[in-house]
Automatic annotation (TrEMBL):
Main location: membrane
Keywords: Membrane, Transmembrane, Transmembrane helix
Membrane topology: Multi-pass membrane protein
Organism: Arachis hypogaea (Peanut)
Pfam families tied to this protein: DUF1751
Record-annotated membrane-spanning stretches: 30-54, 74-92, 104-126, 132-155, 191-209
Name of the protein described by the UniProt record: Rhomboid-like protein
Gene Ontology cellular component annotations, sorted alphabetically: Golgi apparatus; membrane
Amino acid sequence: MSTTQPLPLSVSGGASPFSMSGFTRLCKGLVVVLVAAHIVVTVFPSAVTYVALIPARTIPFGWNLITAGYIEQSIYGVVVNTLGLLFIGKLLEPVWGPREFIKFIFIVNVLTSVCIFITAISLYYIKTQETYLYMPLSGFHGVISGLLVGIKQIIPDQELPALKIKMKWLPSINVLCSIATSFFTLEAMSYLPAIIFGTYMSWIYLRYWQRKSETKYRGDPSEDFAFSTFFPEILRPVIDPIASIFHRMLCGRSSASNDAQGYSLGAEPLPGSDSIEATRRRERGARALEERLAAAKSAGELPTDAAQNV
């Protein structure tokens, strides 16, 4: 089976992922939700106690596990996350489809909030500081971090212009930069857990749970999407044994059945399943990007020589 060569980033997704066109209706709708929620909590500050994630109030107000991810308390968060949603969404939504795209956002948001809640409660019992119980936590950055993992899966070999950084490293760089900046700010607790858990929960979903409509299988068992690929190659011999423990915990039972997992038979993957699925995934991504390129060309947004680069 022939493999699909990665498209040049300058023409990916219709002209460029960074062009101010081609944003999907779903992403625009979510942007309206984020902006409207920010306006509400700005005009009515007391609303934060009901919609943000405050661990001490989560038991009576359990809905904040859902709403917290869509509440931006700062204008900086609104700008960064809405731009991230628009530009990343126009690459991922055509490949996944609107239904899977919104499903991914909902699941990653809820799982991230649950992990943050558990972490805050644990830190309170360890350090006995009530700050962990009453700090209002919210923001869309966990979902944005998860969408970067989707970019890593769909178009890992694309490069950012000028920086020459492959897309597959964006989730790792995002987490690393967030950890680094946390040493210089007291507000790290408000964003760092969401970024870390958003990245990890999205990888779990894409790796083990996402249903492939064309194959009826779940997840992505390819080697180039293994957990160790988030780390430099020199660290992978150390990461792989640790990751295998969580692999057995997450899918050990399902991998015992070919019907449940679809990729595995016993403890071993079916021959060729990794490479076949990886090729199909990249072909889907390339096909969606080519369609957006053709649409942009027909609208007169691209020069003819740009289309010839595909």
